[in-house]
């Protein structure tokens, strides 16, 4: 990759996995907007599968009373089904509607599900810092490794390495076959950061990107952990630690030669990687990944605004405040529409003009959406997994 392209990507992908913080920032609670009935709803999503995951009995003392602490336990699609983990420590594999196997790890799970490219190994992390690998076909435990602290995000399985960002600010590379720690890399810890993280990102075969809570992006060799380059990123300034926060908690989006990234400090930035120049900067604070629908770039803001801008010029196309303070997920493209989930388990479908034209419902707050091969995958805070076709 051209050196300037790497520089642009570094500047855009800041703090992909914000970890190692002593304090976290919680948004001020505001009353969610009431939903307005859709006059003539259209059919966009067709239900395929829904299941309530076995929650187990392994939630640590006090956690049952802290349900407001929503954990983003992402599912891992696999062949014709999926593998999901419940907060209570149970990992379940489904082939269509059939439950293939269930494994009770007897510990609260915090990091969601990672699966290797061949679909043979599943990795999850627990609150006590254990990293556990399972056989994706049977659910049998392959190995278990204990780290000093937990990881709040799914691992990245990159060839024969399991790459993790831990809460203590240390990055780890584990052997995929044995779980042994091959390398670790220490970063600075931040006193205040956005609550949440995105998984590490594989840039290419020789480069893995880790964002850290101190606002830096580290490019490491995934095999050895050797640092390739480090950059300080972010544009926020202020007198307090909170005012200086400039976290980028949502994974960047690449469309052709263009790269798009959001930030907590209020910048939606677009870069042309062919020329290395910034295309535009639009004002909206977000910690979620954007989505593209045609010429529109759609972002879900921290306060619940959904904004669409021209993805080449940054010109505002439309802004919707109908979901204000509903704790929105990342938007994803589903056919000719854009979907976004909320705190009540409702998925809203926007058309190209910014109108909500359809809704579907699951149970419990949604934290993220995944659109893969014309299917939309969700897991709610209450452990309900849902799949829709579009």
Give the second-level CATH assignment, the architecture.
7 Propeller
Rough outline = globular
Question: Would you state the CATH class?
Answer: Mainly Beta
Broad structural category: mainly beta
**How much is the radius of gyration in Å?**
20 Å
Summarize model confidence as the mean pLDDT. Answer: 84
Number of helical runs? Answer: 1
The CATH topology assignment is Methylamine Dehydrogenase, Chain H
Helix content: under 10%
| Structural domains: how many | 1
| Main sheet properties | 4 strands, antiparallel
By CATH's scheme, which homologous superfamily applies? YVTN repeat-like/Quinoprotein amine dehydrogenase
Unreliable runs, pLDDT <50, ≥5 residues? Answer: 1-25, 240-246
Number of strands: 34
């Amino acid at each position: 990759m051209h050196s300037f392209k790497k520089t642009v990507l570094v500047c855009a992908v800041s703090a992909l996995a914000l970890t190692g913080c002593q304090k976290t920032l919680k948004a001020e609670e505001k009353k969610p907007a009431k939903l307005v009935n859709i006059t003539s709803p259209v059919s966009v999503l067709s239900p395929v599968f829904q299941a309530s995951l076995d929650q187990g009995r392994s939630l640590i003392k006090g956690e049952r009373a802290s349900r407001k602490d929503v954990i983003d336990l992402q599912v891992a699609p696999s062949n014709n089904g999926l593998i999901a983990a419940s907060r209570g420590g149970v990992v379940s594999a489904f082939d269509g509607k059939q439950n293939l196997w269930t494994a009770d790890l007897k510990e609260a799970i915090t990091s969601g599900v990672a699966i290797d490219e061949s679909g043979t190994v599943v990795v999850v992390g627990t609150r006590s810092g254990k990293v556990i690998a399972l056989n994706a076909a049977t659910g049998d435990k392959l190995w278990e490794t204990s780290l000093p602290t937990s990881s709040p995000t799914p691992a990245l399985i990159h060839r024969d390495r399991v790459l993790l960002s831990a809460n203590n600010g240390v990055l780890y590379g584990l052997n995929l076959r044995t779980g042994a720690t091959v390398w670790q890399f220490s970063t600075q810890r931040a006193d205040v950061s956005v609550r949440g993280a995105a998984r590490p990102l594989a840039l290419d075969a020789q480069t893995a990107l880790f964002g850290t809570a101190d606002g830096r992006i580290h490019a490491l060799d995934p095999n050895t952990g050797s640092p390739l380059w480090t950059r300080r990123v972010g544009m926020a300034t202020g007198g307090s630690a909170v005012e200086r926060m400039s976290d980028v908690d949502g994974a960047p989006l690449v469309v052709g030669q263009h790269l798009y990234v959001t930030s907590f400090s209020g910048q939606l930035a677009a870069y042309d990687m062919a020329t290395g120049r910034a295309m535009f900067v639009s004002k909206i604070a977000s910690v979620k990944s954007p989505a593209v629908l045609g010429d529109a770039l759609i972002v879900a803001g921290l306060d619940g605004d959904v904004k669409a801008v021209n993805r080449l010029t940054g010109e505002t196309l439309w802004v919707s405040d109908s979901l204000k303070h509903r704790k929105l997920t990342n938007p994803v493209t589903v056919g000719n529409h854009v979907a976004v989930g909320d705190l009540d388990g409702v998925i809203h479908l926007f058309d190209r003009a910014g109108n909500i034209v359809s809704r579907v419902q699951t149970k419990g707050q949604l934290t993220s959406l995944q659109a893969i091969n014309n299917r939309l995958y969700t897991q709610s805070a209450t452990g309900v997994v849902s799949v829709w076709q579009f």
